[in-house]
Amino acid sequence: MYKILVTKPIHPIGMKILREKADVAILSSVENMEEESKDKDAIILRIGNVTKSIIEGNPNLKVIAKHGVGVDEIDVETATKFKIPVVNAPGANADSVAEHTIAMLLALVKNIRNSDINLRKGKFNYRDSAKPVGLEGKTFGVAGYGQIGKKIVEKSRGFNMNTIVYDPYAEINENQEVEFCDSIDTLFKKSDIVSLHMPLTKETINLITYKQLKLLGEKGYLINCARGEVICQSDLSLALENEIIAGAALDVFDKEPPDINEKLFSYDNIIVTPHMAALSEEAIIKMSTMVSRGVLKVLEGEMPENVVNLNQITY
Asked: pTM for this structure?
């Protein structure tokens, strides 16, 4: 039977698929990753990183999988060098992330967090100073127009907002019903609300700085359900403290788990969730089945569609 290392258990449906054809080991701790992956045919990643040394130290390794979409925790370049397919689960969590984004959007503009806190303190008159904002006629900027970005645009249409998009890699055609911006700065300058949905790459690390936040302005809102490192978090903290923007909602952070003693977490104009946007029950089932079936296909000599380095490896 094949030997598979899962760094953290996936949904029971996915585990069942794997165990029908493989011996499945669960990682004891991230610190033991290199040692426990040595004789495995496959690694399914939920926590930790698959590094160059892990790949080079395991001649048996035939496939690496990410339980999710972003593969920034995997050294894809080294995997490609050794002709190891890197499997992920594109689209499996798109609805979940999009729904979470819309929930954050509404919570921000309607000031739900502070209204809830104040009412629980007996301050019913907070309603007179809550200052909720309407969405109709606002400009909603979406940075990143992959499967999640497209879902966000689709789900936001019911609010009668003007939706604009920035994605330098998106294919643009005349039939698309959104306006494309030529730069991230243009997107921030034109938008009332910006939602981030780009992958973490060398180009996107600290892409959003104080400069873009000033362009968004004192009535603007920022949502990040992508990767924490896309934003310069210290700049965001400063912008919130000085009310350079109206508010922010974060599901991701530059370090996870974050240090809740950071000043960022002390502000009233921020909403935070623990990197859970992709974790609806439905999304977890989709991710686990897509990844487990993809891994087994590779081990059985087939090539699934969901291989991120497909064009760089040959069989």
From this structure: 0.89
